[in-house]
Each structure stands twice: as structure tokens, then as C-alpha cells.
Amino acid sequence: MTAGPLFSPLHDEHVAAGASFTDFAGWQMPVRYSSDLTEHHAVRTAAGLFDLSHMAEILVSGIDAPRFLDYALAGKISATKLGQAKYSLLLTEQGGIVDDLVVYRTGDERFLVVANAGNHEAAVAALSERATGFDVDVRDVSDETALIAVQGPLSRGIVEAVLDVEPLHALRYYWSVEAHFGGHPVLVARTGYTGEDGFELYIAPNAAPELWAALVDAGESSGMVAAGLASRDTLRLEAGMPLYGHELGLETRPADAGLGRVPNFTKGEFVGRTALESTPEPGAGAGTTASRVLVGLIAEGKRAARAGYELFESDAASTPIGVVTSGILSPTLGVPIAMAYVDPAFAGVDTPLSIDIRGKRLAYRVTEIPFYSRKRDLS
Amino acid sequence: MTDYSDLKFTAQHEWVRFEPAADGAAPTATIGITSYAADKLGDVVYVDLPDAGTVIADGAIVGEIESTKSVGELFAPVDGTVVEKNPAVEDAPELVNSDPFGEGWLIRVEFTALPELLDYAAYQALLGDEESAH
């Protein structure tokens, strides 16, 4: 890592907008502009504009690229079609998770792999190492790539107003299309991390400030606001999406996290396959940790359980049976929600559980993930 | 505009306003958190305050202020007994953000002992140090 913080190509825009900043994986990124809750609700009802330029982008190209990604990642990447996006996992030999990522097929032999900022180096290292023996080029293009997300029910009109792009109503969720902005190529993907309809725009850093400003202008009349990482986290949690370092880690296996369908066993050898096949049941863990599975939890009242709080079978019980990985007072639902790893015996929906919230026990119950689903009327 | 001249501050970002006592009544202080603390927390969504009658001691944790992202602790800035908590802020925790020095006050305390508190200039200097440390 380099010394000192990293700054987004949009940093000056954030400062001018009065953002508060937080360190995220070495980056100084906007945590909020004015109010987390305002930003959260704007994404649910109108649109929010996010700078995600801290994310890592890795370009994989070459004649072996599809076959290589089938080996290096858990999913069958070779089965994607041109323009398609696919959520996948980078696993260890033990079946643990190095990173969760999205792969965009941008050519027959060309893929853009988008990894978490916190796993930038680990993802580049793993992919580079696994490339041995394949005719493939693995190139870290993070410094050449800015990422702006427009998320929310009104996002399509805002993106169409700004980009030189074909009408986006026909672009399906988890598909992408090439577009232009002021002569600069933009990869437009209908993907996101908020549980809403939305778009992610990949563009060269030198063109990003102008694109950001154009989006701000175009979105103003729709009620779009710039949104920081605080609202991104509450949005993704309501949508039941895992966050690396919370729900996912080297000791987590896909099935533990409810991602058992991400690894594809109809393809050939891939890193982690042997370990996953030897103990395929959820809750096995990738290391020495006790058996555990990810569940959603919901409560009444206003007191939110936070990451690290312990779960018990009852208020009287003193032996923990699980631990919270993420928890908030849900802005949309108005009640506390959380995700937690629990002993599989307590994972059934509606199982009552007790959480120690800084010395006080509070009643939660297991519920279905996601906590919030948008109405699916993409048009 | 808030008149800061009648406020005292702690290094934990509480403010204290001493209320004039009626003849024979014990002196009281109103306590809240500063706008700096409220901004750092983000949107406050829940407050847990001590009930009237609770005896509090300077420096002890007596309440919690939760935002969407984190939990802040309320430290008692004085020794004394809680005479009132702000019911409005329990119903509408966002008052802590919108009016931290006014409608967003937290508790009123009949105090028995006062520690050293900071005046506005000293508190501003402390904030300057905190910001430059980041």
C-alpha cells in the first residue's frame, strides 16, 4: 500500500458539495453529504448518485480468458454472453472467500472484473497467480477507471439524459452496454448494491468530474441527491446483500453465507472445488470455526444490534449461539434488522433469539432475507 | 442563533447550560451534545436517556445516542440527579441533529458537584486539535 490516503478523481466535487469523509480501505470517500437518512430515502423513492471510484477493476483478456475465469472463480463465467454481468466469488483452496465480485463480459475474450476496494491487492494477486499456464492477460486498471452509480426508481431517465446511449428500457438487470459521454467511452451496467433499479457507469477518471456534474444537473428535477457510503451500507443491508468483512471472509464458505448456488459444479476444476465437494452442507466453515449459517433477524422497537454482538437461545441463556455481522435501524422499515451467523439449529424462520445489546437483552426473530424488495416493474 | 457564551463544554462533546434557580431551589443544568458530535454521529435515530431520579456521577456513561451507523455514549458532565429527560427527543431523535443546542437537549440535572468544564473558546480550540489530528 502507498502511504497516505487515496483520493477519488471526484474528490473536489465532494468537497464542494460539503461531504463528510471516511477512510475506506485507504481511500477518503464521502460517508454522507448532508443526511444518511435523506440519502437513503432518496434512493428508495427517486435516485441517488454514488462515487464508487475506490472499487478495483481488473481487465482479463486473451484467448483463454473464459476458461481461465472458470478456473479462477466459482461461477461458470464462460457461459455469460457479450454484455452480461455475473456475480461471482474468488475462493481459496479451502473454499473460503477471498472476495465477492462482479464480472462483466465486454468481449468474446475480454472481461472486466470488479472487486472490493478492501480486497484490491488480494484479488489482483490471486488472479495473477492463477493465470499461470493460461494464455491470458490480467491487468489492474483501477487507476484508469472511475465508477459512478445512479441508483433508484428514477435513475434510468437521468442516465439517458446525460449519456449518448441507446434507450435503456431494454437493458435487463445484470446486463451492460457500451455508451459515450463527451466522446469518452462509458460502460453502462444495470447493476448495483442498493436493492433498487440502477446503473453503474465506468469511465476514464479525467472525464468523471464532467459526467458527475452532468448527472447532478440532470437529476436535480427528479429529486436525485448525492449519496455517501453510510446510505450505501443501510441500503445494501435492507436488500440483504452481503458485505465483505462482515458477512463474507476467508473463514466463510459460500453455502454458509447463503451463496451456495454461486459455485458451479457442472464446469471443470476451479479453485476451492475439492474443499466444497468434500463437505457440501451449509455451516461447515472454511477453517476451524464452529458450524454456522447466515440468517436475517428482525426486532421491534428502535434499538439496533451492531456487528459483533452475541446471540443467545433465550434471555436467560449465557452460551452464545451466534454473532451479528451487520445491524441497523432500517430506515425503510422503521425497525431493527440484522444479519448474523448462527448455529444451524437456530436458523429456522421465526426462531426467537435474544441479542445482548450493550448489556441489555433484546428479542429478535429469524426472518427471510432480503428485508426489503422493490416492486419489480422495470420499464 | 445559539448564544454560546452561557454554555460550558466537555471534551466528550457534551454541552451544559446552567439554569437560574428559583429562591430556595437547587441549581439545575441542562445537558446535550454539541453540533460537532451530532454531525460526527450522522442521523440520530434512537436515544436512550436516564429516567428522572437517576443519580449520575461525572464521567459515567448515562445514556446512548444511536445513529444509522454508530452508537455514541452520553457521559454525565456533572454529579447530580436527573430531574427530567427530554420527551420530545425520545419521540423525534432527529432533533439532536436539527437543533442540538435547543430542542435537541437531552437531560436536566440537579447538580451537586461541578467538574472543570471548557468555555466556548477552549472547546473550539479542542475541536481544532481534533480535526487537525485526522
TrEMBL record, chain A:
GO terms for molecular function: aminomethyltransferase activity; methyltransferase activity; transaminase activity. Its EC number is 2.1.2.10. The keyword Ribosomal protein does not apply. Residues 10-266 form the GCVT N-terminal domain. Keywords: Aminotransferase, Methyltransferase, Transferase. GO terms for biological process: glycine decarboxylation via glycine cleavage system; methylation. It catalyses: N(6)-[(R)-S(8)-aminomethyldihydrolipoyl]-L-lysyl-[protein] + (6S)-5,6,7,8-tetrahydrofolate = N(6)-[(R)-dihydrolipoyl]-L-lysyl-[protein] + (6R)-5,10-methylene-5,6,7,8-tetrahydrofolate + NH4(+). InterPro entries: GcvT (IPR006223), GcvT/YgfZ/DmdA (IPR028896), GcvT/YgfZ_C (IPR029043), GcvT_bac (IPR022903), GcvT_C (IPR013977), GCVT_N (IPR006222), TrmE/GcvT-like (IPR027266). GO terms for cellular component: cytosol; glycine cleavage complex. Substrate binds at residue 200. Residues 292-372 form the Aminomethyltransferase C-terminal domain. Belongs to the GcvT family. HAMAP family: GcvT (MF_00259). The glycine cleavage system catalyzes the degradation of glycine. PANTHER family: AMINOMETHYLTRANSFERASE, AMINOMETHYLTRANSFERASE, MITOCHONDRIAL. The glycine cleavage system is composed of four proteins: P, T, L and H. This is Aminomethyltransferase. The gene is gcvT.
Automatic annotation (TrEMBL), chain B:
The glycine cleavage system is composed of four proteins: P, T, L and H. The keyword Plastid does not apply. The keyword Magnesium does not apply. Keywords: Lipoyl. The modification N6-lipoyllysine is found at residue 69. NCBIfam families: gcvH, PRK01202.1. Binds 1 lipoyl cofactor covalently. HAMAP family: GcvH (MF_00272). CDD domains: GCS_H. InterPro entries: 2-oxoA_DH_lipoyl-BS (IPR003016), Biotin_lipoyl (IPR000089), GCV_H (IPR002930), GCV_H/Fam206 (IPR033753), GCV_H_sub (IPR017453), Single_hybrid_motif (IPR011053). GO terms for cellular component: cytosol; glycine cleavage complex. Belongs to the GcvH family. It holds the Pfam family GCV_H. The glycine cleavage system catalyzes the degradation of glycine. The H protein shuttles the methylamine group of glycine from the P protein to the T protein. Its cofactor is (R)-lipoate. Signal peptide: none annotated. Residues 28-110 form the Lipoyl-binding domain. Gene3D superfamilies: 2.40.50.100. PANTHER family: GLYCINE CLEAVAGE SYSTEM H PROTEIN, GLYCINE CLEAVAGE SYSTEM H PROTEIN-RELATED. This is Glycine cleavage system H protein.
